[in-house]
Every structure is written in structure tokens, then in C-alpha cells.
From TrEMBL:
Matching SUPFAM superfamilies: (Trans)glycosidases, Glycosyl hydrolase domain
GO term, biological process aspect, one: carbohydrate metabolic process
Organism: Iodidimonas gelatinilytica
A matching Pfam family: Alpha-amylase
Name the record gives this protein: Glycosyl hydrolase family 13 catalytic domain-containing protein
Domain Glycosyl hydrolase family 13 catalytic residues, every copy: 1-234
Signal peptide residues on this chain, from the entry's feature table: none
């Protein structure tokens, strides 16, 4: 009655006929409708040998139909990069949902963890390096339909009566990290309208149109005095406008999409986290600095000779960055709960 796996049927994917049949079904969708990618649910609960055959075959079929760079990412609900990366290295998937990023972003930006945790996460990116993938292909996110939304995590951490300005600053900071660090940023619908939910499966699936669900309609929203009882397609919502701005900058600077990421500064407490993104083709760089602390923070850090810019121009955000001497190091100063992006003056 309830299925074999949490209400879902458990197919005998170890059987060659099931493998062949599933492969043909997915090929049909590619051929008939020109689909250029799949999100695959519950990937970790399927035998690895299935993926080792299924993934290369459907990607090769897509390429034969003129669909290059066919994108497949799997849901592996595990925050440990060692476990996540197995499905890339062994299972041949181009990517998996980056639950590692979500977990560490929550610890640092919601729970006031040290920024060093971010560096430790990104230091493990080499686990994803294969002939068919790298960490830059991982979909990054801050919440979803199963675990709950970023807004829920913030309100749970700071209380239902927490200061609106502080919550919005933390939300913007989290989205800045997601958009400008390596990976493919993913927005969970409704987050751009400040939806919060009550966490957990089904309690984070609010309606965009006027809702009749009481457990949705009693939620406090971020950046709005409205509720889910009314239409929520507001293109003037402050988070919607923020994400539009982030997306525009993301598309304007190839370094933010494809650039090599190098950590420049971390702390063993809340505060500054700095990294640079270098466009592999043009050589252009963008410097990203975040301050996760509730007070202003400042630091000097080395650029290891990779940039060496003598003057920096701000692209977005707050604070200041100044080169020292020949540009081998910089000093960054940021207000509380803020971020900034800079590029060297000759790359304005």
C-alpha cells in the first residue's frame, strides 16, 4: 500500500532488463522532446552499477542527437563530500546536488560558525575532478522541499521576533555566497518572495497563488508583511530584486560562472571570508569578500602573485579593498553582515 521505499516503488535496478528498459525510456524523452538534462531523485538508493551503465549511455545518446553537455545531476542526501563525490567518480554522473555546500553555508551564515568551515569544504573540491566533471558543475542551494527553506532556518535560529533587517542581511549574504562561489546556483521557488515555511517535507511547499493552507498562511515572511494567503508573484519584493541583481552580475562576469576559485582569507570565528575567481580563458579576476560577523571586520591577506592588482574597482556590495605595495596583498574592510565584489582597475 505504501510502496517499497517511503511510499515509492523500489525497482529491481540490478536486473539487466530493468536497466535496459529504464535506459530506453530516458532515451525516448531525449529524442522526442529534446530534453537537455535530468534531475534524478533518490540517486543514493540505487545500485552503483546501474548508474555506471545508465549515465554514459544516455549522455552518449543525447550527444548523438546534437545535445552537447547533457546535464544530469543526482540527489544524494548526504553532506559529506566523500560520499557525494562517489556518485560522480564511480557512478559517472556529471554532478550531484551539493548538500555539502548547503550544510556548511547554514553552519556559517545562520549558526555563526567559523568561516574556516567554508575553506575546508572547498578544499575537498578535488574529490569531484574527473574527465567528465568538476566541482563547478555542482548545483548549490540553501534549502529545499525536504529539509526546509533558508528563511525557516534563520527564524528557527534567531526567533520569530528577530529583527527584520538582520534577517534580510543574512539572507542576502547567503545568496551572495551561493551565486558567486563555485557551483551552479539554484533558487528554491518562493524563496525570492521571502517564504519561510515550517521546515521538513511538505511544510515547505507553499503556494505561489493565494493559499488555503493554514500551516502556510500563519508563517512570517522575510522582506514582506504579506502572507501566503494572497498572490505572491511580486517582482518588487526585495529578495526578488536582489536575486535579479546577482544573476545579472553572474552572467556579466565569466569568472563567476567558470572561474577557478582560490581561498584568500578565513577565520576561526565569524568574520571575513575572501576568495578570488579567475576566468580560465581571459585571465580576468574577481575578488569576493564576505563578512559573516555582527560587527565590522578588517583583514590583510596575500594574493599569492595570482592577481597583483594595484587598484580595485567595486562591482557590487559594501566595504573597501585596497592594494598594498605591488598588489601582492590587499586590505579588506567590510561592515557587519555584508559582502562585496571587486575587479582590478584594468578589468573594470
Amino acid at each position: 500500500m505504501n510502496g517499497d521505499f517511503s511510499g515509492l516503488d523500489d525497482l529491481f535496478t540490478e536486473h539487466p532488463r530493468v536497466l535496459s528498459g529504464m535506459t530506453e525510456i530516458y532515451k525516448y524523452w531525449i529524442e522526442e522532446f529534446g530534453i537537455d538534462g535530468f534531475r534524478i531523485d533518490t540517486t543514493r538508493h540505487v545500485n552503483m552499477s546501474f548508474w555506471q551503465s545508465f549515465i554514459p549511455e544516455i549522455r552518449a545518446f543525447a550527444a548523438s542527437k546534437g545535445i552537447e553537455n547533457f546535464y544530469v545531476f543526482g540527489e544524494v542526501y548526504d553532506p559529506d563530500p566523500n560520499n557525494l563525490s562517489r556518485f560522480v567518480r564511480e557512478g559517472k554522473l556529471p554532478a550531484v546536488l551539493d548538500f555539502g555546500f548547503q550544510s556548511v553555508a547554514q553552519k556559517v551564515l545562520v549558526e555563526n560558525g567559523p568561516t574556516r568551515l567554508l575553506a575546508q569544504l572547498f578544499d575537498q573540491d578535488t574529490l569531484y575532478e574527473t574527465d567528465w566533471s568538476h566541482a563547478g558543475l555542482l548545483p548549490t542551494f540553501l534549502g529545499n522541499h525536504d529539509m526546509g527553506r533558508l528563511g525557516h532556518f534563520l527564524i528557527s535560529q534567531f526567533g520569530a521576533d528577530a529583527d527584520e533587517g538582520m534577517l534580510m542581511k543574512r539572507a542576502r549574504l547567503a545568496y551572495a555566497l551561493m551565486y558567486f562561489a563555485r557551483g551552479v546556483p539554484v533558487i528554491y521557488y518562493g524563496d525570492e518572495q521571502g517564504f519561510t515555511g515550517d521546515g521538513r517535507d511538505q511544510d515547505a511547499r507553499e503556494d505561489m497563488f493565494p493559499s488555503l493552507v493554514d500551516i502556510y498562511n500563519d508563517n512570517r515572511l522575510l522582506g514582506s508583511s504579506q502572507s501566503t494567503a494572497i498572490d505572491n508573484f511580486d517582482t518588487n519584493h526585495p529578495l526578488y530584486r536582489t536575486l535579479v541583481e546577482f544573476a545579472a552580475l553572474y552572467h556579466r562576469h565569466p569568472a563567476l560562472r567558470h572561474g577557478k576559485q582560490i581561498t584568500r582569507y578565513v577565520k576561526d570565528s565569524p568574520g571575513l571570508f575572501a576568495f578570488s575567481r579567475k576566468d580560465r580563458q581571459s585571465g580576468k579576476d574577481v575578488l569576493v569578500v564576505l563578512n559573516t560577523a555582527s560587527d565590522a571586520d578588517s583583514a590583510e591577506f596575500h594574493m599569492d602573485g595570482d592577481i597583483g592588482a594595484k587598484r580595485w574597482v567595486r562591482l557590487m556590495g559594501d566595504g573597501s579593498v585596497a592594494a598594498k605595495g605591488d598588489g601582492a596583498s590587499v586590505t579588506a574592510t567590510l561592515p557587519a553582515l555584508s559582502f562585496g565584489l571587486w575587479t582590478s582597475a584594468d578589468e573594470e
